[in-house]
Write a structure and sequence with these properties.
By secondary structure, the chain is α/β, with parallel strands linked by helices. The chain has a domain of about 170 residues: FAD/NAD(P)-binding domain, CATH 3.50.50. About 40% of the residues lie in helices and about 25% in strands. It is built from nine helices and eleven strands. Strands 1, 2, 6, 7, 8, 9, 10 and 11 form an eight-stranded mixed beta sheet that branches. A three-stranded antiparallel beta sheet has the order 3-5-4. α2 runs parallel beside α4, α2 packs parallel to α9 and α7 runs parallel beside α9. The longest helix has 20 residues. The relative contact order is 0.18. Bound molecules: ligand 48H.
């Protein structure tokens, strides 16, 4: 049966690992804010290429909107050629018609999370983005706090956040685009249009096309691209989230290589 272990050894194992991770990731290559489908894809791409990558996620769980297809139903839809990424991740899927595929949300999401973990991505969950580190007009990292602290009224949680440095930051926070919005709030960039109404045929190509560096040191991926550039939304279909994440990861890789900032 189970071998002898004390309560304090269990506590030490947890605290020790957490402290070690924090020390290692206080300064890293890429910080991705948001652990939804676009953030996870970007992180996997980077980690698979040897880049030290950290995801900041405000929830306890990763996956964002990828667990559920829409209207609280589990079927995820993916337009051709999004199924190529499902194949790459070994996610089972079915063909619905000539151009549309379906997959099971919990299965697809857990496989994507596992793929990011297998690639070596580190996570800080229950951690909320609070601000950017901005030096010489370049984003150089993020300021974060525990989600429970961020969620409580200011007057009872006067707890200062901490800062994590990185060479690049990726905003993968979906509709909210919180990192880009922070730059808007600071008047570093102009007013954000917010995403437009639904137009499936237009939106997905545009999101991938517009996945780019929005400001020095900051790349935007996924639904946050729509919010940033005023693109139409696409509803519960996820091909563009996967491709945009992958594309943002490759863009970051290129930047790190170009500027010889890589590890
Ligand atoms: C830390 C944060 C913070 C914060 C948010 O919403 P997501 O799934 O985002 P994407 O872009 O990967 O995928 C979008 C997709 O799920 C979707 O909503 C679609 C396709 N909508 C179409 C339509 O028409 O509506 O994930 C974002 C993640 C979540 O896990 C959040 O919890 C997290 O970012 N997040 N993490 N600090 N301040 N804000």
């Amino acid at each position: 049966m189970f071998k002898s272990t004390t309560e304090s050894e269990i506590t030490n194992a947890i605290v020790g690992n957490f402290a070690e991770d924090m020390k290692q990731f206080a300064s890293t290559d890429v910080i991705i804010v948001g652990g939804g489908p676009s953030g996870l894809m970007a992180a996997r791409e980077l980690s698979n290429n040897g880049v030290k990558t950290l995801i900041i996620e405000r929830n306890n769980y990763l996956g964002g909107g990828f667990w559920i297809g829409g209207y609280l139903m589990n079927t995820i839809t993916i337009r051709n050629p999004g199924q190529e990424i499902l194949e790459e991740l070994n996610i089972p899927y079915e063909q619905f018609n000539e151009n549309l595929y379906t997959t099971c949300g919990p299965h697809a999401c857990s496989k994507l999370i596992a793929a990011a973990c297998d690639a070596g991505v580190k996570f800080l969950n229950m951690t909320s983005f609070d601000d950017v580190i901005l030096k010489d007009n370049r984003v150089k990292g993020v300021v974060v706090n525990w989600t429970p602290v961020s969620s409580l009224p200011r007057q009872i949680t006067c707890v200062d956040p901490i800062a994590l440095e990185s060479r690049l930051v990726i905003d993968a926070t979906g509709h909210d685009a919180v990192v880009v919005k922070k730059l808007e709030e600071r008047r570093v960039i102009g007013k954000l249009p917010g995403h437009g109404s639904m137009w499936v045929e237009k939106s997905e190509d545009l999101i991938v096309e517009k996945t780019k560096m929005i400001h020095h040191g900051l790349i935007v991926v996924g639904m946050a691209v729509s919010t940033t550039y005023g693109l139409p939304r696409m509803g519960p279909t996820f091909g563009a989230m996967l491709f945009s994440g992958k594309c943002g990861g490759n863009l970051a890789l290129e930047q790190l290589r170009q500027t010889e900032l890589t590890i």
